[in-house]
Amino acid sequence: MRIGWATRMRASFGAPFLWLVTLVYFTQGFRSFVWTAVSYQMKDILKLSPSASQFVVSVAHSPWSIKPIYGILSDCIPISGRRRLPYLVISTILSLFPWLILGLANSLRSSSDSLTAFLTLQNLGSAMADVVVDAMIAEAVRSELAEFAGDLQSLSWSAMALGGIFGSMLGGYTLSHLTIDTIFLLFSVLPAIQLLSCALVKETPLQLESLQHYKNVENLEFKEDASHYKRKDTPTRTSDSSRRRKNNHKYHKRKLNLKSEISEKQPGSLVARYNISLRSTIYSLAKAFKQPIILRPMAWFFFSNVAVPNLSTVMFYYQTEVLNLEASFLGTARVIGWSGLMFGTYAYNRYLKRKKLRHVLM
Fold first, then answer.
1. Where are the alpha helices (DSSP H) in the chain?
2. pLDDT interval class at 308 (50, 70, 90)
3. What is the pTM of this model?
4. Whose CA, among 5, 125, 168, 248, lies 20 to 30 Å from 114?
5. All domains of the chain in start order, with CATH
6. Which of helix, strand or coil describes residue 82?
7. DSSP string covering 276-344
């Protein structure tokens, strides 16, 4: 049964696409391999206090907090007519070179400022790659392949859990036998393979699709204007008809002005076209956020994450300084958490995928 499922997935999406998705998420999970070494670098080499180390980690992970911006940029500003692969290549390069530099340059690795800067740059690449691959998955299942939406998500999360298991197990072991700079260089192999794998996936450049996007901008920006005038006229049926004609004339005039603006800017500079695309995307997002079906789950997930403080670095100091736990034991203990993620992914895909979110949370 599983063989048939894998065969249908490969026939629908292609082996290169599935390989790239699996590799990106496996690398995300395997980051536990190198971040264990980063924790020991801050504690043993840089001699940072728990609060200072927590500050470095918080700053380094800040690019993950602005992930929607990367999605907006890739949607609205294509590179060479492509919206996904160029950004994936850029993000992979940002993920690759910081580890190479930190592994080769001892002076940069031994400075808290430079270490923070390179770790932040690396997380910027990882977060951007995560967003781009998510967008590629969403586009792949948008039409007749929607039946595989849950399967692709399960594949990605399973790959990340598998990467986390191997990364945690190997991270603790290698710290007892290899130096930290060697661990940085070893981890850079995965982003290098990911960079080469980008050449296996093809993306069709935007042509007529992008023109159609600008054609539909006026429907996004002036839909509410039309409803506004309609609401304004409805309760005042006994009012003077000249006011309605004036309002309709004003609306159509604004509509024609925007059409002329688009037609003038469309063959012109790219900056003007990107500006219109960004405006329409931001308008669509703002309109979507106003819907209760989107706003309420977002608020719930936001506050559920904000309400729980991040004590991972402080716990690391407690485990190593007070409990005197070894790196190999810490890596093995983290395997339990990643195994829970894999089990939860399987349970959701097998039993909970078709249930309502409210029932799943309860």
1. 2-13, 15-40, 50-60, 67-76, 85-104, 106-109, 112-140, 149-175, 180-187, 189-197, 208-215, 217-221, 223-233, 241-265, 270-289, 292-306, 312-317, 327-347, 357-361
2. confident
3. 0.79
4. 168
5. 2-206+294-361 (1.20.1250.20), 208-289 (no CATH)
6. strand
7. HHHHHHHHHHHHHHTSHHHHHHHHHHHHHHHTS---HHHHHHIIIIIS---HHHHHHHHHHHHHHHHHH
